[in-house]
What does this fold into?
Amino acid sequence: MSIEPFAGSFRERGGSWVVAQSILMVAVLVLGVTNRGEGPNPPLLTTGALLCAVGGYFGIAGVRGLGRNRTPYPRPLPEAHLVQSGIYARVRHPLYTSVILVCLGWALIWRSRPALAAALLLIPFFYAKARREERWLVVRFPGYIEYARRVPRFVPRWKTPTKAGL
It folds into this structure.
């Protein structure tokens, strides 16, 4: 069995994004533990724990919502369908939101500036990865452009009450 078809498939599916994401995530984890701040800081601990909890919610909801459509690669599976329900009715990339929030929370829990810097790098990284993924999604799913108009990329919109709703 030749390794070349697997390597080509890895590149074609967006494997480079997965490798870069893994490096950034490991950097946040390691830097948090190895470069932790001095002394306790209850507000940072509480904020970090809250970010991790909210990030965990986004991650679990995203995995459950995708079901069999889930893949580590940004390019959708050939047999996938466009998920627009559950958490995907609120944000287009809840798994990316999850990783960002958990990594920011981790950095705050450890009071680690280097980990926080690495976690903040995830924001432009996921913005670029999502833009690449969405180019594939537009080609694969004719309704994706309309979906993207309705649903924000990472942060859900807060609905404001209407006069009828008061």
The two ends are 66 Å apart (CA to CA). Residues 1-8 have pLDDT under 50 and may be disordered. Helices lie at 4-12, 15-34, 42-66, 94-110, 113-140, 144-150.
